Structures are given as C-alpha cells and as structure tokens.
Amino acid sequence: MDLQEQLKNIEKEAENLFKGVDTLDSLEKLRIEYLGKKGRITDVLRQMGKISAEERPIIGQVANQLKTKLNDLIVGRKSELEEVRKAKKLEEETIDVTLPGNRTKIGHRHPLTTITDQVKDIFIGLGFTVAEGPEIENEYNNFEALNVPKYHPARDLQDTFYIDDDYLLRTHTSPVQIRTLAKEKPPIRVIAPGRVYRSDELDASHSPVFHQVEGLVVDHDVSFSDLKGTINLFVKTVFGESTKTRFRPSYFPFTEPSAEVDISCVICEGEGCRLCSNTGWLEVMGSGMVHPNVLEMAGIDTNEYSGFAFGMGLDRITMLKYGIHDIRLLFENDKRFLHQF
Amino acid sequence: MKVSYNWLKEYIDFPYSPEELAHVLTMAGMEVDEVEYLGEEIKEIVIGEILKIREHPKADKLVICELDTGDELLNIVTGAPNVVEGAMVPVAKVGVTLPNGMEIKKAKLRGEPSYGMLCSTDELGLSDERASGIMILDDRAEKGVKLIEYLDLDDYVLDLDLTPNYARCLGMLGIARELEALLEDKQVNYPESKINEKGNDISEMVEVEVVDDDLCPRYTGRIIKDVKIGPSPLWMQRQLTAAGIRPINNIVDITNYVLLEYNQPLHAFDFDTIVDKKIIVRRAENGEKHVTLDDQERNLNHEILVIADKEKPVGLAGVMGGANSEVTEETTTVFLESAYFNPVNIRKTAKSLGLPSEASHRFERGLDIENVIEASNRAAYLMQEYAEGQVITGVVDVYPEPYQALEIELDVDMTNRILGLKLSAEDIKGMLERLKFTIKMNDQDILKVAVPVFRGDVEREADLIEEVARMYGYNNIPVTKPAGNQQGGKSFKQKFEDISKEFMLAAGLDEVINFSLAGEDSYKILQLANDSILRKWVHVKNTLNEAYAIMRTSMVPGILDVLSKNAKRQLDKMSIFELGNIYFQQEGKEPYIQFAKLAGASMGYQEDGWNSGAPDFFYLKGILETYFERIGLIDIEFKTSQVSYLHQGRTATIISGDQKLGIIGEVLTDIIEELDLKERTAVFQLNIDKILDKVNLIQRYKDLPRYPAAERDLAVLVEKNIKSADLLKLIVKKGGELLKDADVFDLYQGDQIPENKKSIAFKLLFQAGDRTLRDEEVNKLFNSIVKGLENKFAAKIRGI
Known about the structure:
The complex is a heterodimer. Chain A is an alpha+beta fold. Chain A has 12 helices and 9 strands. Chain A has a 7-stranded mixed β-sheet, sandwiched between helices. A two-stranded antiparallel sheet of chain A has the order 2-3. In chain A, helix 1 (about 5-20) runs parallel beside helix 4 and helix 2 runs antiparallel to helix 4 (about 55-90). In chain B, about 25% of the residues lie in helices and about 25% in strands. Chain B has 19 helices and 39 strands. Chain B has a 7-stranded mixed β-sheet, sandwiched between helices. In chain B, strand 33 and strand 34 (about 660-665) form a beta hairpin. Chain B is elongated, with a radius of gyration of 42 Å. The termini of chain B are far apart. The mean pLDDT of chain B is about 95. At the A-B interface, helix 5, strand 1, strand 4, strand 5 and helix 8 of A face helix 7, helix 10, helix 12, helix 13 and strand 27 of B.
C-alpha cells in the first residue's frame, strides 16, 4: 500500500472514530493515537525514506493537510463535548427554587413611632421645628400660663397626677407652647410631640400614659383661616385626600376662638357606623387661636401678633389609622402585634 | 346636662327633628354625646280596654279577658288578680318584645288560646320592684293609643357635654336662647310666674344678714306659707326624671324644676326650724360641725360659707342644705333662697368636702346674678299652684353692689384679621345683637359692646370674636395657608435619636413602648441595694393604682416585663429595644429631671458565636459595637463589672474615656426563672445624653489604599482569665501604624490544649500607604508582637 493510500485510510478511519467519541478523555486518547509524536500519521511519514524524492513533497503536503483536518475535527468535537458537559453540570445543579429564602431579621417599628414620625415630617415640611419639654412639669406652665387659674372649672377637664404642690405630670403637651414662647420671638412655628399623663384607669379607650402632639404658630396676621388650611392639609396627608374636616365651636382655656376638629369617619366615610357612633364624624383634635391672655403672659404684643395652636392624641390617630380598637395593645408589646407593622 | 326634646319645645318652637337638633347644638358648640329615645323599649305597647272577663274552664287562678285595643278584639289569658271589666291596661300583642327580652307569642294556657299579654309596671321596666298585678291606667287612657303617649315617654333626651364656657346652657332657657339666636324668626316663650302675694311684707317675718358679702354678692328670699307637702304633678316628675333628677316632693321638685329651667339653684328651708327668724350668711367657724341633707356630718372651716340662724348652720351655701332645716311632710312654711355665691369659694368647698352637686356645679361656673329674682318668682308661683302655698308679699334682697354690665371694644379690623374674613361693622353688629349683646356703635372701626349679664364667659375682645365666628359658622370661614417661609427641622438630639432607632431596627430589634409610670413592686426583681440610685423614685401623690405610683428610674423592668409577657405566650424568641425617658429628683432650681435611655434585650438567640454559651450577650454586644462605629465612637471599652440583677461573670460596663455610657449583661438565673424568660436572656441600657456628647456624625472620605496588604494569622495559648481585649491592645501597640487591622477570629478551649488555657487566634492586616511592604518588614513587626505577647502574657505561639 502506498503512502498516499495509507493516509487516505487513516483519514477515513479517524473521521468515523472522532465522530463517535463521547468523552473528552477518549477524544484526547484518539488525538494522541493519530496526531501524537508516536501517532499514526508520524508512522506514515517515517516511511518517507522508501519513496522517491519527487513524491516526498507531495506526501508531505497530503500528510500536513490531513493533520490540519484532523486537528480541526478534534477542536470541533471538543467544543461540542464541552457544551454537553456544561449542560450536564447545570442540569445536576438544579435546585428547588420554591424552598424558602434565608430571611433577613429586621426590627419592627412601633406603629405609634411611625405615626409620630409621619406627623413630624408633615409639619417640618410646612416649616415647623420640633420642640420638647419635660414630662414632670410645673403647675404654672401646665395650667396658669395657659389661662387656667387654680379653682377654674376647666381643671375638671383633665384629671391630673400631682407630684407635689408645685409639680405635676403634664396633662397635655401645651406647656411646651409656654416654654417656646418664653425662649423664642415670633415668627414661631413649632410642633411638640410627647408623652402626657391623666389620672384615668386603663381600659380599651383610656390610658394613664398617652401621647400628644402640639402645634403653635405665632406671627403677624395669623388667622383662623390659616389654622383651617394647616389642619386640612395635615388631615388629608395622614388620612387621605378624600377625608373631610369639620370645625365646631369648643372650649379650651388657652385658645379663643376654640374649635374641635372632626374628620369624616375612616371606616364608613360619613355613612355612620359603630366607630363614629353613627355620626359619620370622628373627633381628632382641639385647636384655636391662641388666647390673648396666653400671649400677653408670655410678653407678646397682641396688637402686633396673633397665633393658632392645635393638639391631638397620637395614640388615637394611630388607632384610627391602623384600625386598632384597644389602646392597651399599643403598650402591651405583644410580638404578634409588633410584627404586623 | 340632659335635655328633653319635648320640654325644650315648650320654650321655643324650633323646626328640628331630635337628630337635627343634636347636630345644630353640636355645631353651635354644645356637643351632644347621645340621643336617647325614652320610650324605646316599650314603644310597641298599646292601651286596651277589658270588655269582659270570663272564668278559665280548667284553672282557678287564670281568667280570660276580652280586650279592645282600638283596631282589634283579642282574647288574653292572665293570672293577674287585679283585672276588672272596663279597666284600661297596657297590652303587649303577639310579636312584641318586652324590655326584659321576652318575646310575646301566640300561646295556649291550659288549653285556652291567648293572643298577647297584659303587663305590669316592672315588666315594662317602669319600676324596679316586682308588681303584684298588672298596671291599671287612669281615666286619661284611651284604647288603641300607644302607652308611651299616655306616659309622656314619646320623647328624646339629648345628653349635652357642656364645656365650662357654656354654663349659661345648664338651663333650658339658656339653650332656648341659643336657638333663638340661630333661628331668625322664633322667640323664646318665657314661663309664667303670676304670683298672688298676700299679707304683710316679708320684712316683718324674716331678717337676712349677709356677713361675708365677698362670698355672697346677692342673697334673696321669699316666704311661702300654708304649703301642703305631697307629690309633684306627674308631668313635672317625668321631666325631672328625664333630666336625671329623682322626684322627692312638690317643694323640692319645684326648686329642682326651676333650677333646670332658669339655671338658678334654689333652696327651700323649713322656715319653722329657723331660730329667731333670722338668716345669717357667714363663714363657718373652724371646727364647726354640720349634718348635711345626706345625713353626713361635715367638719367645717373658715373657708366654707354657711347659711345659719342665730344658733347653728342650717345649710352649706350653694352646695347642700342641712338636715336640720329640711322640708318634710310636716313643713307648712317655706323660706325660698335664691342667691349668687362666689364661684371659686363654692368650688373649693365642693372639692374639699368631696360633695359635688347640681347646685355647686352651676354656682362654680358663674350664674346670672340678675336672674335670681325671676327664678325665685317662678318657683313661688309653682308652689302657689302645686303646693297650695300662699306667697307672702315682697322679696328680701341683699344686693349691696348691683351688677354693672361689662363693656368691650371690638375692633372690626382685628376681628377680620383673626378670623380671615371681610365683615363690615354692620354684619358684626347684627350677629352680636342676635346673641343679646347691645351695641353702641361709635364708628365703622370700633364697636362698643355691652355684654348681657348671663354671658359671664365673655370677658374680652377675643371672646366676642369667637361669638362672631360661631354666628358666621366655623365651616363657612375660608381655608388659607399661613404666609412665611421658615425652615423646619429637628434638633441634633432629635436627629440622633432617629438615627439610633433606625439603627436598632435595622439590626433586627423590635421597638417597644412601655409606660413611664410603674409600681415599686416591679423593681423588686432588680434586687437593688438600699442606697441604690434607682430607688430615688419620683412618687405620684394621687395615684389611682399602686402599679402607677412612681416614675421609672430604669428601663430594665419594663423591657424584661415585655419579654416575660411574650415568653408566657410561647413567644420566647424575641429581641427588642426602647428609647424613652427615666426620671429623678435632683437638687437645684429644677427639682426633677429626665434622662433619655436606650435599652434593649435579647431572648432565645440561636447562634452562639464563640461557643461560650452566651448567644444573647454576644448578639447584643455585636449590635452595640456596630452602633458605636456607626455614630463615630471609636474608643469604646467593655469592662467586666457588677450589676445587682446581672450575671456576675457576664456583665460589662460600656466605657468611653472617663464616661460610663451604659451596661450590658446576662440576666440572673433567678430572675429568668421568676419571669419565665428563656435562659441566657441578656439586656443593655445606654445613656443617650452621655453618648450624645461624644457622637461624631461627620463623615470624611479617606483615600483608598493603593498598595497590597499583607495578612498574617496569629494563634496564641494563654491562661483562661486573660482578656482578649488586653491581648489586642498590646498587639495594636506593637504593630504600630503599619498594622491597619487586628481582630479575634477564633477561640478554642478543650481537649487539644491544657486545662486553664485557651487558644485565641487573631487576623492581622499590615499595609503601608506609600509602598508595597516587604516580607522582612512584616516579619519584623510580627515577631515583635509575638515577643510582646510572650513577655507580658506568657503566651505560647501555636503553629498555624
């Protein structure tokens, strides 16, 4: 058999074998068998001495072409087999994507804090700063300076915890108004969120400890219509655009005119239900124009300045907003309650 | 104040249904809490006439009544012994439910069909006592008519929650006047008081001396003789009952009735009990005693005003009458007092004696001093009509300083500025006049307003502005935004508290909110030393409940209580924090002070990082370390220390420089058992105010390292009691500025090493800012660290 024929046979044989190979290992073995230093093509070339000088370059060329061809075949087959191997690996690595993820543990913010923060943010956006005052307050700031003299029937409106003859647990956040007026000159815009106390037994709707936020604006030409605008905006932001507000005459010793603010019921939207005692309205805050007695006691000229103030129960707002029916839930700190927020 | 709808209609003919009336009053400032229909429970009961009574064929004690209920004839079997033919009786027909919940059904009683039930007063809820027979109605009753009409119970009662400035509306006429102002075309019908006076002038029968006229600016009296004590007319009794006042006898009922009409408390004395026929209004002597109408002996003092005769007090002025001068069945002559007492004094007396009454409630809110005679006349008239009394000619009236109407200037421009309106002087004048203010207009800018005497609540211009707003309608006032462009914001402390809360939440702690009032009992578990600062509680003087007797001095009892309550509900994996205040007494100008604290706890944490059996401790410690890093506190140390309620080997004080910032530790086992906590529960408490002084929230960028770092691990064997922090301190010192980081990464105690020893492994990171470090440089530092550890701690280096 001449050398050319031998090479042709090798070509035929190798083509079939390479196509049939199905692992990268056997492919490598075949490569060595045919293209290696001791491989079949080299075997043929070793017999070049037996042929004529004219034939040698021809055989050499054929052999090189064969080498290239086989090499291409191997490379092609190799990449095919690589693909198969990758596909197999992916297949093997399949996971159950419906298994639960590794949950991150995050803390739950108390709903009262969420509402308080929301209230702060709304008023900060309207140019208010956040003021604070002590919870153990003197009688003057809590009552007298707010136009509630001793033995005034208005003291009956709030059952007070006393500490001694001069100090008490503040019954509202309003004394922060007095502290602010003592420190700052108009224009004044503050809100004062905080903890307040009343001598009430704990039940579903009363708590001896609860939370309020107070607002105070003092400036030139501050009017009742400004108060209405501010409150309306607040109510709509907290309870939604469609919530209506209603102002009705009321009495607070430290405001005149005074207004109680009702909002359309968050449950029935005014139709009448149990929450609103079928009135369609919910009482949410007290407000009014700062009483000139209060401003005068604080040394502010009432011909020059006027102001409005408002105050509301943050616990109540929280309860209305989230549909919590019992104030005790806010202070029981049951994990199942906390984790709902 | 309870207001009967029908009764109010007698004074003014308003066009409202009960619900509309409630709305109108509420929007005018008189909040209506509730509207109750008086006849609600018996509205379906009708009046029937017993036409015929037949014997029951099978039962001796039962009879069959044939009834005419106007629209039908019914047979009803009853056992009532008092039925007679021709009687008018209340009938509950089939389908009707009685107030006790019983539903009437068609029934057979011993074989005889019965189509309803004849009712007794107790079955109708009209009396509490069991009645012996059915209710027999008098000759006003008509068959077919509803029982509630016959009983005048077809009425609504509005419960008004009146604020102190609406004292004028504590009487029906006051409310009628408010409605008159709202309704342009209706007028108040004032009640009748046509007295037929007889005999010599009253001054010949009685003398009145007001000793302390500062407490009694006006005192008037009338005498009505030959009165016949008996029940008051039924209509009066029902109206009093509707208003929540129990009928007693005609004289007392009349005083109460007029109180409700005119808002003027009256008192009737049995005149024959007054010694020497002289009334003295004076301060009580200190130590004087007096038995009030409720048979309680009261100890009096010089602050209390009494009505007295020559010998003794006969009543507490404006608060309650005396038992010794009470009107009884034997009374024939009545001295009728109508007076004006000092509001503050009445309030003090009612408070100090714990004796609030309908009278004191009104006196302390300030009454219409000009109204006292009218009210007295009305009561005298009613006594003449309903107690057959003879009114003596004249009135005693001690009124040394007659009332001067208050005049207030109202600035039209100010009114508009305050309300955000554009009213004219004429507009305002019209509104105020409807409220019975008298206007003396000077010009278009200022109104001179005379305040009617019954408007004691109006003291200055602002009060008039409120009246204008009320008449204009609060909801008709426009809505505007306040002008101004101030910058809102929070203080640094407030921002820092927000950051702290935010951090704790991100770290996985749930936020809790506890009461700041507590009971001393809740501090028992802390096993505090007798002189512990935490015992310096601020006490509440008038607590309702021992559980709210003190202000908290620590957040820990509250925090542990939360875990305890949850653990008892099988929620025993929980980690929480609370940011709140604690309170102390202090020396100085302000006797009380509050501090902000951040406290937290962990119970049932799963991963035990160092295998030290203290998972909750190290979980919390990790959170705090990260927290301090976040707020720029870099020199924090945790030092072993002792706290009465914490595990002595697992407690640390948190220190920065010379400041103690807080504590962290594992809760003592006996507390864990007592509170049902999960074992290993740990707590921390930080002093926010102190931390605030050290916080550094300013952040500056530092260039990133440009040269590679060299990492070395170092494991040493040391005595067990040696603290890792001490080793680290030395490592850092020896490592110098090229040692960028050094951390503990492994702790081992056990079989592989000798007892009393532990192996601690550190990861060290060396890096220079200006070059790549050579091995020799790093090795030199590393060896110096090793040598240092060997010398100072007798550490043995373990191969890594």
